[in-house]
Amino acid sequence: MASEQSSGGGGGGTELGQFLRARRTQTLPEQVGLTVGPGLRRTPGLRREELATLAGMSIDYYVRLERGKETRPSPAVLDALARALRLDDAEHQHLRELAARAARYAPEPPPPPSRTVRPHLKLILETLRPSPAYVISRSMDLLAWNPGGLALYAGIADWPAGQRNLARYLFLHPDARGLFPDWDEQVRGCVARLRSLAGTAPDAPDLTRLVGELVVKSPDFARLWECYDVIGRKQLQKTFHHPEVGVLTLAGQSMQLEGTPGQRLGVYTADPGTPDHDAMLLLDLTAPETAGGGQETKAGRQRRTGP
Length: 307
What we know:
By secondary structure, the chain is of the alpha+beta class. The protein has 14 helices and five strands.
């Protein structure tokens, strides 16, 4: 039997091998139709030879893939591994992207993301009030916000503007666990998003700094990072147990912004006339005005207080 210890490869092949190993060790034999005999299995999930057999390849070839020493698997090999591991469409696509990078025929990397938020986007944030809204970078840094968008994440305003990052908040802020009743689901989705980004931009400085910090400071993050999930459960609604306005459940939407690589707009809404909308309105009315991101305009002040 080949050794189950993973050895280092180089470059993109290492990332491809890490993904395969993570998926293999998290796939139970019963999930892929294998019968487990009596006795203790020392290997979590599938053994290497089991996965190689399911995918129709030699054990030696698969070991080279997992160790990052084979960097040009064919599309047919990738498809066979995806079937054997029961990957969904998003995971299958991630596997292809990792293989493309390992083979050095990946497309040109996108330009470095800008942290500058254009003035008209800040105006959009203001016009969305009382809905909490913000602009974030690809690595989840808060770049701009309206008052409710910042106040929704209770306590994050206590951090300096340059430290405000939604992933950092989830794992390191003392108020985060109390804010989200489904904190476990929230953090799994957060790590999956960062893992997916790491597969295609592993050397991005903004990402490597954030991941390095969280791996050191948060055992929960370090554990989830090693699981190598690349998709999270998409939530149409989020419930917040907010210390200032009580419990509110809001519908969330996130969208890519044109002309600003890596920046996304996040907005939360509630149906007018509902307790959730009342709580959202109260949050907007009582949140401090913050000049660092979504500074209130003269029109906004008139809308809130009258001419």
